[in-house]
Amino acid sequence: MSEGKVALITGVTGQDGSYLSELLLSKGYAVYGLVRRTSQPTLGRSLINHLSENPNFHLINGDMTDQASLDNAVKEVMPDEFYNLAAQSFVPESWRSPLMTADVTGMGALRCLEAIKRNKPECRYYQAGSSEQFGEVKEIPQTEETPFHPRSPYGCAKVFAFEITRNYRESYDLFACTGILFNHESPRRGLEFVTRKITMMAARISAGFDETMSIGNVDAKRDWGYAADFVEMQWRMLQQEKPDDFVVATGETHSVKEFIDLAFSHVGMILSWHGEGVDRIAKDQNGITRVVTNPRFFRPAEVELLIGKYDKAEAALGWKPGTTFTGLVKMMVDSDVALVSEAKERGYAPPKPPE
Q1: Is 287 helix (H, G, I), strand (E, B) or coil?
Q2: CA nearest 239: which of 16, 11, 18, 24?
Q3: Closest listed residue to residue 181, CA positions, set 51, 19, 7
């Protein structure tokens, strides 16, 4: 079915880009990943280094802030499918860099659509949406019909990307659709994200590299799934007869505290919590403080509860998540324990999440 198709992926060096590349290559695609030209290789490319010897995997230069480079990329590749996964996707950074976030995450989507409209209008386009579009949620659970109320510059940029994608679909008859993806994690998640910070710090603390982890709001609740499950839905969306938008989620919500408790218990530390709000701490069974909340990590406007309903995706495209919350957390912890153990054996410091 997919033999001989050509796909162009922005954000190819990230978590989703690497999993999607593997999926499409397994289906016989020629995959082109858009990367910015740099004088030195970036560390992010380590996620796709293993694909470099695949003759069907290619990197081409381009920039989400430069229309001409995106036009040139589409003209060079002439893709059958275009997956826009590129974004400034770290929500706390969007508060520090709102203009850059709007340019890359929001306007970047418009530039991709313009490149397709101008150069390959029959190309099918996937836009990576986010549950952060819902923000201060108007109903529980959130569906494709739930109104948006974003609570960060990142969420606002994603709402623009969603609306401009729908606008180009309706105005120019492009096959363009958005997957409103809820939080999805994996061992390939960046260390700056809270889930990976938790699993890496659990591994580092259990190995004696650190004693305590600082964290933000542990009461925030999210719908967490596995990235490899979610990229399959991205592909399925471009195989449907008519373009449409879908919520991609697990239908379950868990607090950051639950994530911490499960991760630390998996390395043998049973936590007990004390205090409230910004003054909460967690001690292990030996009375050692392992987790402290720090107001520096709290958002200016918090998104308290996200939980998605994926019924439409299941009914229309036969998709449903395949990895449980517990399985996801344990998978991530096991991966970071292995990384930390290897570093310890070889005599170097394992990676540490940024403060």
Answers
A1: coil
A2: 24
A3: 19
- 233 occurs within a structural domain: no
Q: What is the full per-residue pLDDT of the chain (355 aa) written as tens digits?
A: 456 899 999 999 999 999 999 999 999 999 999 998 763 444 445 889 999 899 999 999 999 999 999 999 999 999 999 999 999 877 888 889 999 999 999 999 999 999 999 999 999 999 999 999 999 989 999 999 999 999 999 999 999 999 999 999 999 999 999 999 999 999 999 999 999 999 999 999 999 999 999 999 999 999 999 999 999 999 999 999 999 999 999 999 999 999 999 999 999 999 999 998 788 999 999 999 999 998 887 766 666 788 999 999 999 999 999 999 999 999 999 999 999 999 999 999 899 998 7
Q: What is the CATH number of the domain that holds 132?
A: 3.40.50.720
Q: Based on the domain organization, do 46 and 127 belong to the same domain? A: yes
Closest listed residue to residue 225, CA positions, set 158, 316, 308: 308
Residues 50 and 128 in one domain: yes
Q: Is 304 helix (H, G, I), strand (E, B) or coil?
A: coil
Residue where a domain stops, chosen among 159, 181, 203: 181
Do 202 and 171 reside in the same domain of the chain? no
Residues 76 and 96: their CA atoms lie apart, in Å, by 35
Nearest 5°: CA angle at 188, between 183 and 191? 80
Provide the number of structural domains found in the chain: 2
Are both 118 and 206 inside the same structural domain?
Answer: no
- Alpha helix segments (H runs only) across the chain: 15-26, 67-77, 91-96, 98-101, 108-119, 153-172, 194-206, 227-237, 256-266, 311-317, 325-346
Q: Does residue 321 have a cis peptide bond before it, meaning omega lies within 30 degrees of 0? A: no
Q: Domain residues for 342?
A: 194-221+255-304+325-346
pTM to 2 decimals?
0.93
Q: Answer yes or no: is 189 within a domain.
A: no
